[in-house]
Amino acid sequence: MNKFAIAAIAALTVASSGVATAEPVTLKVALGSPEPTIWSDQWRRYEQKVEEMSGGDIQLDLFYAGQLGSMGDTLKSTLSGRVDMWSGSVPILSSVSPEFNTLTFPFLFDSDEQVTCVVPKMLEKAQEVAGKKYHFLAFQPIEHQAMAGSEPITAPEMLKGKKVRSAPSQSSINFFQAVGATPLPLPAEETPSAASTGLVEAVNFGLAYAMASGLMQSLPVYTRADLQFNLGATIVSPRTWAKLDEDQKRIMTEALSVIGFEQSTREILDFETAMMDKLKEMGGEVIFLDDSQKKAWTDAARATWDQSLGELRGDAGAFFEAVKSAKDSCPS
């Protein structure tokens, strides 16, 4: 048999076997999380699982916080295809999909158990919101977002007249304005320097990120007025997703099992506890609210929901109804 016949038979064998022949790919991933943290640990697990399932044909090139630019800048780069994947906070993604802003409403959830029940139920709705702008891959838990200051902040009226770093979401801005503060929606990457120079007097931030970024050296009192359970999201550039074959898409999706939402939330809650202990060792304070104090914060926050919902573009009303329906089906 001549070499041309052998080559033809080999080609037919491969074609009939249905074996994927996609080229290996390396995906550039912009992450909002700093390193080393619980979030970077989770991403390394995902990276390893993708590589394992693909036999090394899919490689993730991870760039942690600030290496490729701010979360806002790298989100734009992902939408345009210059970056393949983006993982950052939902408030940042809300600039593109305002419906997601409803997930940042202050005191939206009644408990951590409710968070782990509700958020995974919103995946299909989130993919509908993404449409063709990007491929929505997953929600991730980030952490509780409470108040850092130079003194305890046990009542919302204590913020009156203060300059407060707010999350860059309209719902957070509305809340701080409602209690008489001046909200400054600074990017997370710029917040520690703003606190050290006195540009802000209090910060709405997560403790683990605050500790990792050095913020708590300037504002060493952390009050667990947990306005939000901050959420993150992972998306894929529409250009990149279109280039992947079906098996590669399956791998990218199924590999998420190693960073499942409930498991990741438990890890983050443990990490928060470790960070509270570390802050105390450094001479800082962690303040917990009693029931009456928490009610005052909750009432003040939820009074702003209607205003925030009315200001949102897109189909925010329908998305929020889906959130409330999921909450009704979950334990409080």
Outline of the structure:
With about 325 residues, the chain is an alpha/beta fold.
Question: Describe it for me?
Answer:
The chain starts with a helix and ends with a helix. It has 332 residues and is α/β, with parallel strands linked by helices. Strand 1 (25-31), helix 2 (38-53) and strand 2 form a beta-alpha-beta unit. The radius of gyration is 22 Å and the shape is globular. It has 15 helices and nine strands. Strands 1, 2, 3, 4, 5, 6, 7, 8 and 9 form a nine-stranded mixed β-sheet that branches. Mean pLDDT is 92; it is low at 1-21.
Topology diagram in text:
Layout: H1 3-17, E1 25-31, H2 38-53, E2 58-63, H3 71-80, E3 85-89, H4 90-93, H5 112-121, H6 123-130, E4 135-149, E5 163-165, H7 170-178, E6 182-184, H8 191-196, E7 202-206, H9 207-213, E8 221-236, H10 238-243, H11 246-254, H12 261-281, E9 285-287, H13 291-302, H14 305-311, H15 316-328
Parallel strand pairs: 1-2, 1-3, 5-6, 5-7, 8-9
Antiparallel strand pairs: 3-8, 4-7, 4-8
